[in-house]
């Protein structure tokens, strides 16, 4: 009976360790919480990326998503907000992550559409592919 308890305890500890998402905290304040680890290549700021995403304000209100635009988006990674440029470089193709973007790495003191000035933003992002 003791060995069964030991096995169950070990299994519980192991599953708890794997249940926690890996988190990258970048010097800029951007936080990348890896929901699903990818197995493909990692993009650089010079790459074009293909992503599915959903963006929300700090209060949870959705302000944009790739679904609203008909599906995945494709863009040069070096030509978007710093949070995305920094955060997506920490991901691998096939991965999903939650990016927490301080206002300074998003749109700063300027409002854009439904995003008020000085807004911290959150994005759920799936990195589908990388091009050049």
UniProtKB/TrEMBL annotation:
- Signal sequence, renumbered to the chain: 1-19
Decide whether keyword Chloroplast is in the record. no
PROSITE patterns in the cross-refs? FKBP_PPIASE
Gene3D superfamilies from the UniProt entry: 3.10.50.40
Q: Which keywords, in A-to-Z order, does the entry hold?
A: Isomerase, Rotamase, Signal
User: Which top-level group of life is the source organism from?
Assistant: Bacteria
- Enzyme Commission identifier(s): 5.2.1.8
Which residues does the UniProt record annotate as the domain PPIase FKBP-type? 46-131
Catalytic activity from the UniProt record: [protein]-peptidylproline (omega=180) = [protein]-peptidylproline (omega=0)
Molecular function terms in GO for this entry? peptidyl-prolyl cis-trans isomerase activity
Report the family membership. Answer: Belongs to the FKBP-type PPIase family.
Instruction: Please describe what this protein does.
Output: PPIases accelerate the folding of proteins.
Protein name per UniProt: Peptidyl-prolyl cis-trans isomerase
Q: Which organism is it from?
A: Paraburkholderia caffeinitolerans
Kindly list the organism's lineage.
Bacteria, Pseudomonadati, Pseudomonadota, Betaproteobacteria, Burkholderiales
The gene coding this protein: fkpA
């Amino acid at each position: 009976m003791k060995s069964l308890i030991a096995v169950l305890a070990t299994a519980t500890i192991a599953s708890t360790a794997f249940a926690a998402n890996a988190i990258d905290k970048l010097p800029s304040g951007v936080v990348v919480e890896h929901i699903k680890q990818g197995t493909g290549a990692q993009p650089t700021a010079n790459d074009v990326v293909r992503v599915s995403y959903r963006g929300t304000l700090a209060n949870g209100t959705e302000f944009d998503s790739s679904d609203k635009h008909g599906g995945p988006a494709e863009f040069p990674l070096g030509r978007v907000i710093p949070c995305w440029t920094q955060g997506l470089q920490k991901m691998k193709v096939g991965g999903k992550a939650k990016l927490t973007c301080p206002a300074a790495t998003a749109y700063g003191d300027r409002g854009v559409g439904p995003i008020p000035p000085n807004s911290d933003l959150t994005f759920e992002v799936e990195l589908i592919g990388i091009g050049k």
